[in-house]
Amino acid sequence: MRYIVGVDIGGTNIVVGTVSEDGSQIHGIRTDPTHSEQGAQGVLARIAALVEDSIQATLRATGLTREAIVGVGVGSPGPLDRASGVVLLTPNLGWRDLPLRDLVSEAVHLPATLDNDANCAIYGEWWVGAAKGAQYVVGLTIGTGIGGGIVIDGRIYHGASDIAGEIGHTTIDSTGRLCKCGNYGCLEAYASGPAIAARALEGISAGAETRLPEFVAGDLSRITAQTVYEAARHEDEYALELVRETAKFLGAGVANLVNIFNPDVIVLVGGVTLAGDRLFVPLRAEVKRRAFKPAVERCRILPGALPGTAGVFGAAATFKLQSWGQA
Amino acid sequence: MRYIVGVDIGGTNIVVGTVSEDGSQIHGIRTDPTHSEQGAQGVLARIAALVEDSIQATLRATGLTREAIVGVGVGSPGPLDRASGVVLLTPNLGWRDLPLRDLVSEAVHLPATLDNDANCAIYGEWWVGAAKGAQYVVGLTIGTGIGGGIVIDGRIYHGASDIAGEIGHTTIDSTGRLCKCGNYGCLEAYASGPAIAARALEGISAGAETRLPEFVAGDLSRITAQTVYEAARHEDEYALELVRETAKFLGAGVANLVNIFNPDVIVLVGGVTLAGDRLFVPLRAEVKRRAFKPAVERCRILPGALPGTAGVFGAAATFKLQSWGQA
């Protein structure tokens, strides 16, 4: 069995793991803060160290020799150019025209490939997760931002210049909230982690009755989407309302995807899945209310099944896809 | 050269033409009112007569014999099931579970295939029209409703159950206008022909200064989107404002498609193209304002190049696609 190292570069953390080519095993999961403020060279050094650590752990666990490790798949925020392996621009990481693929490859002495982080996460869910084997898959990665990935017939749909799948920046309310991207009413402006926290704070300043402040020892600046989900689990009415409201926003965006793609599976990945049925039940109801019945009936709307590792599995799978033509 | 008959069934008219297999020629274009209120048998009889007429005209024009005509591609409102050739439900035509493909085939003694009318129109534009040869094409058909079609690598994207491409029913304003489909804020509820007429009437009842009533001899019930475009051509300020507003609504929907698909071409087909640059200039500006810059730069936003015949060309092309694997 051959193994591939998957590297998932996020704004906060880098996660690395070594995955068997059939996706059945993952070894040597390692994570480190990204610290992008220390510059690309620092991030690269951390990636190289994590990859080496992960490989060593894998060889110890499996008894294999180094030849079993055949390559590295890298998932990075974009936009990027797959053909040249260059990250064009990442506002969060401060990179511009960085030849990330070749830099990683040289640092770890292995062939490498590069794809978008959200594409990788959704591809991972298609490969071995919630959307395993489905023919038509659309996915959302919901965290600091909202990314997206589209998998058709086992291949990532990249579009004309590798930008496809920017689902977080689809408008659900054309005169609505200003988004960081400059557009108005983007899904991301309502349903990303920071957007959920911002809506919570707006309600609190408007006098909403809630125990949310207790969950952050009174320091409202520490309220995150996770705080909202935790308060909802404790049956805080206002937090529950925020989750239902989030489900409605997401439902409008997901209904659009159902009507456009008529997919077998829509998979949601990231922190938002922590909200569980409190989110997914009203989300499915909202999609049912909005989208075409035969398309809704055909489509399963699921939380990701690979918390924390979807991007690593997917990065490994994209190495297979780019190097061998299929995952 | 072989020829294929293309049949485009609309709510108002049926259009038929006979197309050479390379798409370079069309002969015997024939059209007749659909008169769906007379029942499916009546519509079928009209289709059969139009197909026979079109074939005869083609044989006269080309000097070919009947063997040159190899099949019929039918484009019909849906939803429908391509595999069985059955139209599942068409509210406009009143059909339910109609085995249209086989009924047409038997009536005209030729093999037939069936696909969605909007898919056919966009496929026609990809085959020989404005989007000719482009790898990633998304299209809108704008008339009584707003349909959509997606062409990837020369093939129509149908999704899991032939419903993909319902772009008219994507939400651009989640708390907006109620759409006939039951959803709120659908693109179709703002930018279809009847929606444009409805917005015009709303403005007139609110006291808008306009010469629109003069274009319908004072009979406001006769105002259509075409009336609005005509008044705009005559520099009526209110009509121009309606066109700009339409461009803004369409721009939000098209920007979503640009961010999701990163296409080479977005093509708009139907009456709306009559508005010309008055619509397309502000539309492109709105898309530029909303969508990701590298995706916008990559994408041409074009009016269809086959007025009245895109659906016929496309229906013929879908016969090739379904029968021979490619158009």
If you had to describe this structure to a student in words, what would you say it looks like?
- Chain A is α/β, with parallel strands linked by helices and 327 residues long.
- The first copy, chain A, has 2 domains: 3-125 and 308-324, ATPase, nucleotide binding domain (Nucleotidyltransferase, domain 5); 133-303, 2-Layer Sandwich (Nucleotidyltransferase, domain 5).
- Helix content of chain A is 40%, strand content 22%.
- The first copy, chain A, has 10 helices and 13 strands.
- Chain A has helices at residues 40-62, 100-108, 117-128, 188-191, 193-205, 225-233, 237-261, 277-290, 293-298, 310-324; strands at 3-9, 13-20, 26-33, 69-76, 80-81, 86-90, 95-98, 112-116, 136-142, 146-152, 155-156, 265-270, 300-303.
- The first copy, chain A, has a 5-stranded mixed β-sheet, with helices on both faces. Chain A has a 5-stranded mixed β-sheet with strand order 11-10-9-12-13, with helices on both faces.
- In chain A, α1 (40-62) packs across α2 and α5 (193-205) crosses α6.
- The longest helix of chain A is centred in the last third of the chain and has 25 residues, at 237-261.
- The model of chain A has no long low-confidence stretch (mean pLDDT 96).
- At the A-B interface, β10, α7 and α9 of A face β10, α7 and α9 of B.
